[in-house]
Structure formats: C-alpha cells, structure tokens
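Anyone opening a protein record will find just a pair of labelled lines. The record below illustrates this layout.
***
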Amino acid sequence: MKASVMQVEKTLVELDIDQIQNVVQKCLDEGIPAWEIVEGMSGGMTQVGKQFEMGEYYLADLVLSGEMMKEGMALLENKFDMRQMGKKGTVILATAKGDIHDIGKNIVGTMLTASGFKTIDLGVDCHEDQIIEAVKSSGSNLIALSVLLTTMVGAIKDLVDALAEAGLRDKIRLAIGGACCSQQLADEMRVDAYGEDAVKAVRIFEKLAKSMKQGR
C-alpha cells in the first residue's frame, strides 16, 4: 500500500475528520486511482470497527468515522471509470430486517462500484419480500446482506427460506457480512459466502459472479 494511502487509513483510525479530505486530495494529486484510496479508507473503517468491538471506541466514534468516509467519498465519486460500471454484474445491497446500521454496507457498495459492479442499495431494515422483489425487477443474481447485530441473525434464515419458496434460491448467490457474522454462521444458514471485510467482498462477488456464468 502506498504511503499516501496508508495516511488515509491512519487518518480514519485516528478519527481526524479535519484532515480526511486533505489526505484524500493528496492521493489524487499523486495520481493514485480512486479504488486504491477507497481501499485505504475501508482498511481504516475496519480498524475502527474492531476498536469499537473491543470497547476502545464508542458509538459516537463509529458515527464520526462514517461521516469521514462520506467526506472522503465526496472527492472520489466522480473519479471512478463509469464505463466499467456493471460489467462484472449487479449486486443487491441490503441491511437485514430489524437492523438499521449501514456503514459496512455502504463501504462494500463503494468497493464493488469501484471495481466494476453495478449496485442496487435497498437501504436498512430490509424485509425479505423487498429483497426478493428487487431480485425479480432487476434480474440480479447476487445479494450482499449486512447483519451487524446478533439478534438479527434470524433474518438471514428468513431470506434464505423466502428465496427458496419463491423458486429463486438456486438462481442467486447470497453473501453475508457484519460484526456478528462468521464462516460458521454462513455454513449454518446455507448461504454462499461470508465476507470478513469490504476488500474481501470484491473478490467474493467476482468469484460468485463467475460461478453463475459457468452455471455452478
């Protein structure tokens, strides 16, 4: 990772909101691609999330880091190669029913867009019927479901069951991510993949999209 991108990550971890646009602009001035800068911000957000889980950062810190992400993205949103968008496929993004957290989902969406996917963001607290309707109307066969709270894990099963009932389960690939998720949970819920962080999400959906094209 380039020194300037590492500084972006460090600025996020230190919650220095006054400097985030300065360090992002420095990266742009050096000719660093937008997706690499987003990767640095994503790394910083991942570390902030870990600090929060350990009780070293508080909810206000988590919110502040989300605001910093938005400020950094304000400088980057016009820097992505729009000609590449959607070439890899379309991913439906949603935060699970009963969960109103969206920072992780938003980062994943940004990373996917930067890498050439089209994204459809359904927002937070998404009922399974809403997600199924989006699958039908968009023709997308890829779903990214964010689940932060352990109490909302049941929403994963509800979505899997609803997809099966609608005759769509074998036609889509579903990946989960969030603080309460794990590979073990993904196996238990019979979903197709678990994403530990936003950077891995890109590789996961590239693999899932390829498997769909190959009919596996």
In short: Strands lie at 90-95, 118-121, 142-146, 173-177, 193-195. Residues 150 and 180 are 5 Å apart (CA to CA).
